[in-house]
C-alpha cells in the first residue's frame, strides 16, 4: 500500500480507504493496489480549512483494473489556531460556524436540492479528537472543455435563483444555517480602520468624498435593516464561480455542481448573486459589464419565480446590490488593509483619481443607494 510521504498529508487507514473507494466507484469487491494524495488547497485563508486533498488510486475488481478518486476535506475549529469570533464556538448562526458543512451533509438536505443544482456526494464523515472533522466527498470535474460562456453563467444564476426562492428545504429550516451574515461582516471586519486616502486604496476607489461604498460602510444600518426586512431564503453563501462546476446529466441537460457549503444559511433574496456576478465579470472580458450583469440578474430572477418566489424585481435588485457591495467590498478592503500592513507603508496619502473606472462594489453601492432612497 502506497502512502504519502509528506508529513503534512493525512494519515489514512487502508481499510477505511478501501471502504470509501468502493463507494466512490460503486464496486463492492474492489481491492486496492495503491493510492496517492495530492493537495488541492487548505492551510490558508479561512482558519476552518485544515486541508483539501484528492485521494486517487488503483485497484482491481475480480482481476479487472479499476481507477478511483475521492476528495478529502479536512476542517477544524478556529480555536485550534487561537482565533476568536471566527466560528469556533457553539453559535450555529455565526457566518463561519466550523461544523456547518458537516451538518449540511449529515442532514441529507444537499441530496434534495432544486432541479439543476447538486452537491458532491458525501461518502463518510469522520469526527476526530481535537475538534477536527474529515469529510470524504465525491471527486467532481467540469465537463466544459473551453470554459464557461455567458449563457452557462446565466444557467447557474438561474439555478441559484431556484435555491434562493426557497425559505426552507423539504419543510426544514435547520438551526445550523447562518443568519445575518452581512451584519456580522460589517460588525466583525476591521473596515473602520481603512486608510481611504492611502495610494493603494485609491488605486481601486475614488476619493473618499466621491465613494458611495465608503459612505455605505460609515452608515450601514439603513442597508442592513432593509436587507433583514426582505424574505430570508436558503443561501449557498459562498458563490464565487470557482465553487461551481458543470456536469452533463443523463438527460443531456447541464447540471450545476455547487461545492463548499460551509457558509450555507438564510439570506435576503439576491444575496447569492453578488459574489457570483463579481467573479463572472472578470471571466467574461468580451462582454460589457452592464450586459453581463443584466443577463445574470434576469436569469436569477427567473429562477426565483420557478421556485414560487414572487418578490418584486426592485426588491430583489436591492438585495443583490446591497449584499454585493457589502460582501465583495468588505473582503476587498480587508485584503488591501492586510497588504498595506505587510508593506509597512501605512500613513501615506495620495490625491486620488476622480476619473477612475468604478469598481464592482462602488457600482453596487451606488445602485443600492438609488433603490434605498427611492423606496
Overall description:
By secondary structure, the protein is α+β, with helices and mostly antiparallel strands. It has two domains: 125 residues, Phosphorylase Kinase, domain 1; 224 residues, Aminoglycoside 3'-phosphotransferase, Chain: A, domain 2 (Alpha-Beta Complex). It is built from eleven helices and ten strands. A five-stranded antiparallel sheet has the order 1-2-3-6-5. β1 and β2 form a beta hairpin. The radius of gyration is 22 Å and the shape is globular.
Strand-helix topology:
Layout: H1 14-25, E1 31-41, E2 49-61, E3 64-76, H2 100-107, E4 117-118, E5 122-128, E6 132-138, H3 150-164, H4 181-188, H5 199-202, H6 212-218, H7 221-229, E7 232-235, E8 244-248, E9 254-258, E10 265-268, H8 273-283, H9 289-306, H10 313-343, H11 360-373
Parallel strand pairs: 4-9
Antiparallel strand pairs: 1-2, 2-3, 3-6, 5-6, 7-10, 8-9
Briefly characterize the structure.
With 375 residues, the chain is of the alpha+beta class. The chain is built from eleven helices and ten strands.
Strand order in space, largest sheet:
1-2-3-6-5
Supply the helix-strand structural class: alpha+beta
Question: Kindly, what is the distance between the CA atoms of the first and last residues, rounded to a whole number of angstroms?
Answer: 66 Å
Number of strands: 10
**Major beta-sheet overview:** 5 strands, antiparallel
Average pLDDT score: 91
Amino acid at each position: 500500500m502506497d502512502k504519502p510521504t509528506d508529513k503534512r498529508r493525512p494519515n489514512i487507514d487502508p481499510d477505511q480507504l478501501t471502504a470509501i473507494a468502493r463507494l466512490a466507484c460503486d464496486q463492492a469487491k474492489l481491492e486496492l493496489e495503491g493510492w496517492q494524495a495530492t493537495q488541492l488547497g487548505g492551510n490558508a485563508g479561512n482558519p476552518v480549512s485544515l486541508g483539501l486533498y484528492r485521494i486517487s488510486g488503483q485497484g482491481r475488481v475480480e482481476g479487472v483494473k479499476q481507477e478511483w478518486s475521492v476528495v478529502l476535506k479536512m476542517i477544524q475549529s478556529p480555536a485550534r489556531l487561537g482565533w476568536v469570533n471566527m466560528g469556533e464556538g457553539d453559535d450555529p448562526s455565526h457566518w463561519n460556524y466550523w461544523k456547518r458543512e458537516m451538518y449540511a451533509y449529515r442532514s441529507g438536505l444537499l441530496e434534495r436540492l432544486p432541479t439543476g443544482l447538486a452537491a458532491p456526494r458525501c461518502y463518510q464523515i469522520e469526527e476526530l479528537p481535537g475538534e477536527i472533522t474529515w469529510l470524504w466527498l465525491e471527486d467532481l470535474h467540469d465537463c466544459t472543455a473551453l470554459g464557461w460562456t455567458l449563457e452557462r453563467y446565466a444557467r447557474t444564476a438561474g439555478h441559484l435563483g431556484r435555491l434562493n426562492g426557497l425559505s426552507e428545504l423539504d419543510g426544514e429550516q435547520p438551526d445550523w444555517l447562518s443568519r445575518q451574515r452581512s451584519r456580522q461582516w460589517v460588525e466583525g471586519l476591521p473596515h473602520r480602520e481603512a486608510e481611504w486616502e492611502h495610494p493603494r486604496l485609491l488605486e481601486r476607489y475614488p476619493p473618499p468624498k466621491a465613494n458611495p461604498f465608503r459612505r455605505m460602510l460609515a452608515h450601514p444600518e439603513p442597508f442592513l435593516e432593509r436587507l433583514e426586512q426582505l424574505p430570508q431564503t436558503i443561501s449557498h453563501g459562498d458563490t464565487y464561480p470557482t465553487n461551481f462546476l458543470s456536469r452533463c446529466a443523463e438527460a443531456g441537460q447541464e447540471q450545476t455542481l455547487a461545492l463548499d457549503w460551509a457558509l450555507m444559511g438564510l439570506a435576503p433574496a439576491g444575496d447569492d448573486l453578488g459574489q457570483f456576478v463579481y467573479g463572472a465579470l472578470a471571466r467574461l472580458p468580451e462582454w460589457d459589464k452592464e450586459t453581463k450583469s443584466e443577463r445574470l440578474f434576469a436569469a436569477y430572477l427567473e429562477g426565483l419565480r420557478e421556485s414560487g418566489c414572487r418578490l418584486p424585481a426592485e426588491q430583489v435588485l436591492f438585495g443583490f446590490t446591497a449584499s454585493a457591495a457589502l460582501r465583495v467590498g468588505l473582503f476587498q478592503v480587508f485584503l488591501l488593509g492586510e497588504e498595506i500592513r505587510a508593506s509597512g507603508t501605512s500613513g501615506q496619502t495620495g490625491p486620488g483619481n476622480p476619473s477612475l473606472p468604478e469598481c464592482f462594489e462602488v457600482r453596487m453601492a451606488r445602485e443600492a443607494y438609488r433603490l434605498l432612497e427611492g423606496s
